Amino acid sequence: MDREPIIIAFCCNWCSYAAADLAGNSRLKYPPNVRIIRVMCSGMVHPELVVESLSQGADGVMIMGCHIGECHYIDGNQKALARSDMITELLEDFGFEEQRFGIFWLSSAEPERFVEAVSDMTERVKKLAQAG
In a 3-state reduction of DSSP, which class is residue 107? Predict the structure, then answer.
């Protein structure tokens, strides 16, 4: 891959988006190729959004939400987790490697975890490009 991969990150408003904001305010370094889409809850990210993102040219898609058991909408992150299996099956059906999708849990006080997740996802997608 001659360019940096584009990663779409669906971030829940309450935890992962706040962690991303804190990472920026703390001037933590992370790959600039992430495109953050703020959603109220990770459970609101429909599997079609993941497939559509990849179909439209994204190299990887992340869903980032509150830690399990700490969702502001009670069980939204559990819905997102349950959908993640369906998402990997859909990716396979559409010809995408399942490594192009990741689901991550973090709190608003974990900007380092946000940086780590985005960096790991970027490296994972780069390895796919090198292998293919």
Answer: coil
Q: How many domains, in total, are found in the chain?
A: 1
Determine phi and psi for 18, rounding to 5 degrees. Answer: -65, -35
Cα–Cα dist 66/70, whole Å: 6
Asked if the structure places residue 65 within a domain, the reply is yes
Q: Which helix (H) or strand (E) holds 88?
A: helix 76-93
User: Quick check: 20 and 38 in contact, CB under 8 A?
Assistant: no
| Residue 113 belongs to a domain | no
Q: What is the pLDDT of residues 21-42, one digit of tens each?
A: 999 999 999 999 999 999 999 9
Cβ contacts of residue 18 below 8 Å, gap of 6+?
108
Distance CA 125, CA 132 (A): 11
- Tell if the pTM clears 0.85, that is, is over it: yes
Reading the block at residue 77, the tokens are 């992150």
Among 92, 63, 58, 95, residue whose Cα is nearest residue 80: 63
